[in-house]
Structures
1.
Amino acid sequence: MDVLNGVQLVVFGAPRAMFSEAEFNCLRKYIDLGGSVLVMFTEGGEKELHTNINYLLEEFGIMVNSDYVLRTHYYLYFHPKECLVNDGVVNEAVAKYLGRENENSLKCISFVFPYGASLNVAKPAAPILTSGSVAYPLNRPLCAFYSASKYSNEAKKGKLAVIGSGHLLTDKYINWEENDKIREILFDFLITDNITLNEIDANDPETSDYKMIPDIGMLSSRVRTCLQLQESLNNTGHILFSADNINSLIDTKLCSLNTSMLPDTLNAYKTLNVPHNQLQLIPPTFNDTLPALQFAVYPPPFQELPSPFLELFDLDSIFGSEKSLLAQLAMSYLETESSEKTVEDNINQFIHDVNENLEFIGHINDCKEVIQTVFSFINNYKN
């Protein structure tokens, strides 16, 4: 106790050791003499921190649960344990301290509650902040205050504040939302008399009952989850099964794995005059993985080659008119400038190509004869 003489505030930032009875008595006496204590926890509560400080807190109506506070859906912050609470104020003293009395007291402050646990609060303590309507557990206390001056006529009495998340006051989260305002509220309540709790809200806080999530895995292994548990009557009026006698319908002796039949099995060898010898290893026989090859009795069929692709056809030569073919042929010779061939050679080649396309005379390579035949056609046409 001499160590705490002259100390106005003692802060426990998630204690990770067991307290002795002497230490509890020292803290209890320190609070009775007017000292203030702030206790901060983290997710998992006492089970995670391996401490027993709940033994002291329960004397003041506060207990930290060994659970986790989670946000049920994503909003602003990615991790589900970084819970954004917008409607978690359950005592009007917070709104009065912040000067926001005209606003809705539930939503007078927004804060992030990271990696924390919920509380159980009873008189003489009073909850200040809750998890709101979005985080789980739903609307459960996250921060609670205890002031001994309400329950004693003495002028000087101590105070106690418990918050389920010590991460809220760390450098990483202190500037998130209005977490710094939460810090001001905590220390002003513990050190000064600027915050006076609303007695109506303290006596009847708007919090929900603590409900645990059922173990679905364990319940699914029971037969009761598969059968209707209401009383069913047969024609004689007797109850077929109910929640009390449903286990009697299950016979666990029908299927079991044991050696109870081993003596009878050994005696059967003598009764049947069968020698009782150890099992011998039977050499395995392996089949061929591939069948034997045989000669084919008929020639193998070969697949015919497919037709050429449409891009390989000269569509202009097939679908084009005679005039367009002659025009293309003439343009090809006019655009060709070759020093190796003379003009006469080009004319002869042009006449030869025209004869092949129009088929004036079949199988004739003499250009003069082709011209003579063309002029004879013209002369006969005029006559």
2.
Amino acid sequence: MTLYLLLVLRWPTRVQTRSLHRCEFASQLYILDVPKSELPLWLCIAEYESRFNTHVIGARNADGSNDYGIFQISDKYWCKPENRTDYFIYNGCNVNCSALLSDDITLAVRCARYIQKQQGWSAWANTNTCAMRSFHYYFYAILLIFESTGLSVVAVVEARVLTRCELAREMFHLGIEKSDLPTWTCIAHFESRLNTSAVGRLNGKWSNNFGLFQVSDRYWCTSDSLRPSANMCHQVCQELLTDDIGAAVECAQTVKQRQGWKAWSAYNGYCQHITDKLTVEECF
């Protein structure tokens, strides 16, 4: 017979608590090797169950049991309560319930993933709600990872920052296929935050990346530095920083034709996983 957790929506909290920020929680899950594809549901479950609070003990359930920690894990089936109780059946995670209240969330994550493996996401009562919001949480989760891993750009002071729809419309008018626009807008978002004048931090090979699509001056354009460049776009890098995005789009197309979408780290790490969920139809 399958055993299911009884979860509650209200809980008392201990006096001394630690509430994680979403960014901090997502980063810790990522460090603990939680797959990127699972991050949205774990974020959503933790928010609904405990508001990201590591020390939450749930209000007593109808059978007398309690739920512990950031994922509200039941002391009836999954952890061992401090005192022997009539309702305790099995310590599925082989852990003391008090250990799930630690600021170090390693054991809580390990136990929650074990539960998910045994019973699936339906072990948590809020799974249906989270499934409906999965894209929102997915997009948010990868944004957090993107920030936490330091993949950011330095933009010049005077810049034009486009909205996603503005970029989609301008690229469409420049002849870009509408079917490619979700991927292009995703890459531009993660590479430059849609900033036409973004200049990347100096890379390990002493090169810089320029513009909306962060094109390298080592291979694709020539900068005002003394570094040699293959300049395969036949462009001066400064021309990729103007409010007129024509040159930046033309060069980005050259990069794609020669190397494909995988030329961009943003595509490899993020965009390839979500472009099937994105659309630009609302932009036209």
3.
Amino acid sequence: MKSASSDTEHIPEDPPTVSSSKTRAVGLPAELLGMIFQNFVRKDAKKHALDDENDAEEDTDEDEEPASILQAARVLSHVCSSWRQAAIGTSALWKTIKISLLTKDGVLEHFCSTVFPRVKGYPCTIHIRDVKFIGKSTHGIHPIHRCKILPSMDVLQLRIGFRMEGEYDDPELLKFLGSIEGTIRSILLDSGGVDDGRVGTLWSLAKVLSPFSHIRKVTMWFADATIEACTETCPSVEELELMNMEGTLALADLLDMFPNLRFLRFIENGDRYWNVDGYRSRPFVHSKLRKMCLKSVDMVGWTATGTLTASGTFPSLTHLNVEDDAQLDRFLADPAHRRITCLVVDTTTYSSASEYLSAQG
């Protein structure tokens, strides 16, 4: 005779259901749930954005991924109370935030006031785009002020995408930057999506950077190179990247702002749209710069003219990467540049300036 226990030994278990799976997930520790959530959102989306077509007042040119990581994180936080607590407590889910100022004010304010506190002190990046001041109806407050960065936030990069040229030091923008209480590690001024504006008008980079004492990197994309000279310096900045600048650039005045600069990078995709400011050009020496990436050394004043009226000298330079060897022999022949230990010319690497000069015969 079979026992009662033997009667039940071979009874198959019910297959797992969505409800039972959810119940098991609810019982997981919050830390483990957070790790699962991070893995899920990485696979589920490619971008972080607040650009839902139902939230924006008008379409933008960028092709956004509708199921963004940030949106996926928001979905996870609405499944149940335990998932919500785990998602909110996992700051890494909210570490990259992209905001369009075309978003309706109510949605924008709710989003920022909800998501920003979840970041806490986790290193994050924030991209505020579609920034425009001239002709923008603010209804008493410009929408950029709704993106208030909290004291607890540690922002690895604050990227500001402009829609109008010449608004880099607009009073409203300076007011917003001055209100930031969190830590900003780097700033990117991006004019790649401008519609119109003033090119060639002096503007103050020093005013933009003055609120930040911990900033390490300054990046400008497609920005107006007509930067105002100033006596103030930004000693914390160690890296400067300039891509596809426009207008006239007084490089000596610009580098004077960054006495502790270690790395200078010029990027040009296609034709060059900036030139050396002939009125403010002068020879200069930067004693701290160690690494440069350039298309050619004429970007730092080493031109084909007989007198180097705007040439830069870099006695601490150890790494130099150039695409074009124009005037490179003259640059390397200068005794101030004998410390170079890594020289890349196009795709060829040399261990010193003398090795390159010897190879040229």
